[in-house]
Amino acid sequence: MRKIYIFDTTLRDGEQSPGVNLNTREKLEIAYQLEKLGVDRIEAGFPAASPGDLASVNAVARAIKQSTVIGLSRSRVQDIDAVREALKGAADPCIHLFLATSPIHRKYKLKMEKEQVLETAQAAIRYARKYFSKVEFSCEDAGRTEIEFLCEMTEMAISEGVSVVNIPDTVGFLYPHEYGNIFKTLKEKVPNIEKIQLSAHCHDDLGMATANSLAAILGGADQIEGTVNGIGERAGNTAIEEVAMALETRSEFFGAKTSLALSEISRTSRLVSRLTGMVVPGNKAIVGANAFAHESGIHQDGMLKEKTTYEIMSPETIGLKESKLVLGKHSGRHAFREKLIDLGYTLDEERLNLAFAKFKELADKKKDVSDGDLLAIVEERLIDTPEFFSLETIYVSYGNEMIPSAKVRIVTVDGDVLEREAEGNGSVDALYNAIDKAVGEEVTLSDYSIKSVSHGKDAQGEVHVVLTQNEISVQGRGVSTDILEASARAYVDALNRLIESRG
Q1: Over residues 38-62, mean pLDDT
Q2: Which helix (H) or strand (E) holds 395?
Q3: pTM for this one?
Q4: Closest CA to 432 of 478, 372, 480, 399
Q5: Which residues have C-beta within 8 Å of that of residue 4, sequence separation ≥ 6?
Q6: Rounded CA gap, 57 and 15, in Å?
Q7: Residue 323 above 60 pLDDT?
């Protein structure tokens, strides 16, 4: 059974998704979980992009011990030097160089001829090899590059000592048989191709990133590059959980598997969704809320008789556990602790107490507390955001023939109590105006979204906001059965993150 290496670029390509901006602590949290998932290689960022990105890549490089940590670099000396600085202290560092090779990129972006592209890439690889034993080289927009030139570029990269050559379908242009044939051709025509690994990096512009990645494996690819939940530029990247489960479910067909800890897939998906604010669609393969749900009577009948009639994989495989344990306001700490362990969380006493208190508050408002409710509680309590401001109480006055107004009571980190009132165009607007008055910050609300984290009329609502101040953009999250309270908590959470970001 051939091993397929997993190169995760959630922290680099995934973070390039519009609206996503992870701070260093959040990147570390995701990196630790990726390591737990068993990802072979973690692309931590693009160090030359900004001092902040360089610092966050360095933090990941120093923290991760089991996975290779990678920094992205253009084929420029300055970029390579930035990666050198960012990967200091890494247990297993690797640099990822790239240069566009397609005719359209050569003509309009690089303004280079083929020979100049090859010479530029060769010089960059030689410089990088002075400092890195592991070098990956990507032919950007390889999917639209002449196959003869791809062979030439790959042969050059092998002769210069790279470890991996990546053949990306940068704009999601190709169909599976076309993409798979590129790998077959490289395997057949390029001398010494066995000295390196070939990697596939696909985008989902035409909805075929996963299909193309699997076709690449059939064509001889050794590594798949992608992101958790398939997030990324434009329509996103290959979803690594889809590739991993396709190989697991159809292992006899592909003759290949990853070494991922598949039971960590669900938890990793939830973490990335929570920290990026990118909601996973209910019908998303593998990790969507409905992926293992059955509503049709025919399907339900088949499931009751034999699960494999309608499930080609079990939810337990990806870390989901079906449970009949119902928690309510009469449940004790022991049942609560055991339920959290069943869901994959082992908390210390302090965090358990915080989560249990929140659970009791929710149980007084809801008849039944679902697994989704518990996950929302525990994941909210695990967020370690400094509380410069703490929301204590809110009062909202609203009627369809009156101007909405709100009053908030906020406690500062120094213990000062701030109470302010304000009006607005709606209840949420009035709340946010009152909070602005209380804390004295001028911010722009760039995004506001609501989703349900459980089912029923008494479901908990999760509010996600993005606040902008000057060049700083931060996210905030709040959860409550009352959507106005959730809105206020999300706003205050974002303000705390904003102050932390300013230093």
Answers
A1: 97
A2: strand 389-397
A3: 0.78
A4: 478
A5: 217, 221, 222, 223, 224, 243, 247, 256, 257, 258
A6: 13
A7: no
